Amino acid sequence: KEAETQQKLANVVILATGGTIAGAGASAANSATYQAAKLGVDKLIAGVPELADLANVRGEQVMQIASESITNEDLLKLGKRVAELADSNDVDGIVITHGTDTLEETAFFLNLVEKTDKPIVVVGSMRPGTAMSADGMLNLYNAVAVASDKQSRGKGVLVTMNDEIQSGRDVSKSVNIKTEAFKSAWGPMGMVVEGKSYWFRLPAKRHTVNSEFDIKQISSLPAVDIAYGYGNVTDTAYKALAQNGAKAIIHAGTGNGSVSSRVVPALQELRKNGVQIIRSSHVNQGGFVLRNAEQPDDKNDWVVAHDLNPQKARILAMVAMTKTQDSKELQRIFWEY
Ligand SMILES: NC(=O)CC[C@H](N)C(=O)O
């Protein structure tokens, strides 16, 4: 009988990378002061026995770090392992436990490069498991529920936080401390309640199986860095990043991705020297940067990131530049993904 139920359940692999969901604090009152990345994946799984009702779950520890320390090499390592598992006949879905600080970057990266329609769900928590009202158990339960559900196939990389199913492309950590941290300018795709998914929207942008990018063809990512726009800004950071080898600079601009007149000449010069300039916006609730609005992008040969925030624009630029160095192609990619 037990063997029969096991056969009916989906096979879900949990790839653990660290973060608060694997964190531990000194006391139950420590919801914000704790150490991330302490618990191994077996303890995470053992902490939610109800996972066994949803799927045949097994875990792998890919790394054990706080997500602000994730490097491009870590992203590639994780992405390649996800692709191997997705190719395996006995894997139906993949869950990645992750720190929340760069979760949106990893989710978007996987959304661009994984050539599979099998569900890939990235999940974290805002409080460590040792805290009162810890959110990790339910977030993980929801992630496994979504990853084992056939309805989740072909919808791109997903994020389950705070009972919501979000698109890995759109979602961003928009609030810290609070458990309702992850939001998208375009709204969640659905909800997951008591292990059941309720869907309301589909992503309109290219992803996974419809993407032109494939993790199996990527062996390294080019240097792309971000510089911040603000009052009284100088061009020092932009020049320093280029000098240090940046192939593209994401301008985390004010408002519509506007650029200070004190910075414009340096960016024009950098572009002439081959560095791609990509205008994004650092406004909190969803930037929206259009070509030739605020700056003459056609004349400057710059690219706009449209609705992608600076950290997501960095991910797309890196992936795109594994294939093209042409600014027009880059702009096409920024419209399509
Ligand atoms: N809530 C979190 O996961 C944050 C912990 C840590 N800074 C990380 O991103 O891994």
Automatic annotation (TrEMBL):
A family per Pfam: Asparaginase_C
Keyword hit for Signal: yes
Transmembrane ranges, per UniProt, are none
**Per its UniProt record, what PANTHER family does this chain match?**
60 KDA LYSOPHOSPHOLIPASE, L-ASPARAGINASE
Top-level taxon in the UniProt lineage = Bacteria
| Residues covered by the L-asparaginase N-terminal domain | 11-199
Q: Which residues form the Asparaginase/glutaminase C-terminal domain?
A: 224-334
Question: Is Signal included in the keywords of this UniProt record?
Answer: yes
Q: What are the entry keywords?
A: Hydrolase, Signal
User: Active site at which residues?
Assistant: T20, T100
**PROSITE patterns membership:** ASN_GLN_ASE_1 (PS00144), ASN_GLN_ASE_2 (PS00917), ASN_GLN_ASE_3 (PS51732)
The family line of this record is: Belongs to the asparaginase 1 family.
What is this protein identified as?
Asparaginase
Record InterPro entries: AsnASE_II, Asp/glu_Ase-like_sf, Asparaginase/glutaminase-like, Asparaginase/glutaminase_AS1, Asparaginase/glutaminase_AS2, Asparaginase_C, L-asparaginase_C, L-asparaginase_N
